[in-house]
Amino acid sequence: MAEAKRRSISFPRYAEYGCALKYIMEQALDVKYVMPPALTKHTMELGTKYSPDYVCTPFKTVLGSMIEALEAGADTLIMTHGLCRLGYYGELLEQILRDLGYQFDFINLSDYDMDKKKEYIKIIRRINPKVNPARCLAQFMEGLRMVEYLDEITGEYYKGCGFDPTGTEYKRAYQDFLTAMYTAHCRSDVETGYRAAKGRLQSIPLDKPAQPLRVGVVGEFYTAMDAFSNLELEQKLADMRVEVHRWMTMTNQFLHYGNGQKNLRIKIQDLCQYDMGPTATANIWYARQCAERGFDGLIHIKSAGCTPEIDVMPVLQNISADYKIPVLYLTYDVQTSDVGLQTRLEAFYDMIAMRKKVF
Ligand code: SF4
Fold it and tell me: I want to staple 162 with a disulfide (CB 3.0 to 4.6 A). Which of 44, 207, 238, 252 is the partner?
């Protein structure tokens, strides 16, 4: 009897998390993962061409990436659920792709109750009914560990790379780490890649002042984490010899705290009493943390049309006034220019550097 065709599954490109998804799909679920091409101007042109005008920019990025994944051979797409209108985007994306003539299976996580464990089993069975549960769980946990390692090493990288006197060693160590994660096939590959990267980053002597400029980055989930979408904001800051801190990661948002972030909400009750969106509570909490720790500035990032993060802005203004910390507000859409961003960052840098000298 002919063997059932193995799925070729894909998920839109999102920061560097594709390596963990690839690992989970291939090792835990035993399906083929189609890595969508890296995001480019072409991805954005495709996404913008077929998207409604009024949607937020991540929709356009995701649509462009899904088209590229289908063109690369994917026969199954996964779409995340979400606490804002992201939760409705799956249906719209699927319809647009079908109208374009693509044939595929669409696994929309918004169709499942992601608070219930049995729903995860349904999703796993749909992806591969023959999967071995024990093997699947072990490899799935290793995939999640890869997410944690990715966030930890990325965080270390942006804190230090601006102070690497060679200008290349830190970058090379980080790139080698990413390559190790994208090519990992087993637990030992993941652990070895992580330990090698950690050791290398720690062994590079940094030329860091006793009190470097420290900037906290907060903002909308997709744009804050995806370097392509924020026009490499963190690398640009690091290249100006700024120590960059960002709490918003998959690890912190989902693996350590989970949706709702109850414990964080209690800590900001004096600033706002209700959740205003998927990431608002965490952003407000972390912005105040940075202010209390004496950071030199905050940068708030959001996509054009992101209502939840627009609601965060007045609270950040209050934090700015209370703690006398400057905040740069950046809104990204498909037209945002790299040169325009660089100019605004340089002006912000000059201001916080001058302010640090005075105070
Ligand atoms: S958080 Fe904002 S940008 Fe992200 S999907 Fe929701 S509305 Fe769009």
Answer: 238
Of all protein residues, the one whose alpha carbon is nearest to atom 6 of ligand 1 is 84
Q: Verify whether ligand 1 is closer than 6 Å to residue 278 (CB atom).
A: yes
E strands, the chain, in order: 8-10, 32-33, 76-79, 105-108, 213-219, 242-246, 297-303, 327-332
Query: What CATH number corresponds to the domain at position 42?
Result: 3.40.50
Cα 52 to middle of ligand 1, angstroms: 15
Residue 183 domain flag: yes
pLDDT: which is higher, 316 or 259: 316
- Taking the C-alpha atoms of residue 70 and residue 103, their distance in angstroms, rounded to an integer, is 9
User: How many Å lie between the centroid of ligand 1 and the Cα of residue 301?
Assistant: 11
Q: What percent of the residues of the chain are helix, what percent strand, and what percent coil, each to the nearest 5?
A: 55, 10, 35
**pLDDT over 50 (residue 2):** no
Q: Ligand 1: does its nearest atom lie under 6 Å from the Cβ of 86?
A: yes
Do both 239 and 328 map to the same domain?
A: yes
Question: What's the CA-to-centroid distance between 220 and ligand 1, angstroms?
Answer: 7
Distance 351 CA to ligand 1 centre (A): 30
- Average pLDDT of the residues in 93-112: 97
Q: How many independent structural domains does the chain possess?
A: 3
Residues 117 and 127 in one domain: yes
pLDDT tens readout for residues 29-74: 999 999 999 999 999 999 999 999 889 999 999 999 999 999 999 9
Domain that holds residue 123: 8-131
Residues 189 and 319 in one domain: no
The model's confidence at residue 276, banded by pLDDT at 50, 70 and 90, is confident
356 and 218 co-located in one domain: yes
Q: Give tens-digit pLDDT for 197-234.
A: 999 999 999 999 999 999 999 999 999 999 999 999 99
> What values do phi and psi take at 322, rounded to 5?
-65, -40
Task: Report the separation in Å between the CA atom of 132 and the middle of ligand 1, taken as the mean of its atom positions.
Answer: 36
- The pLDDT of residue 24: 97
Q: Is 85's C-beta closer than 6 angstroms to any atom of ligand 1? A: yes
The answer to whether 185 and 58 are in contact (CB under 8 A) is no
Q: How far apart are the first and last CA of the chain?
A: 77
Task: Answer yes or no: is the C-beta of 312 below 6 A from any ligand 1 atom.
Answer: no
The CB of 84 under 6 Å from ligand 1? The reply is yes
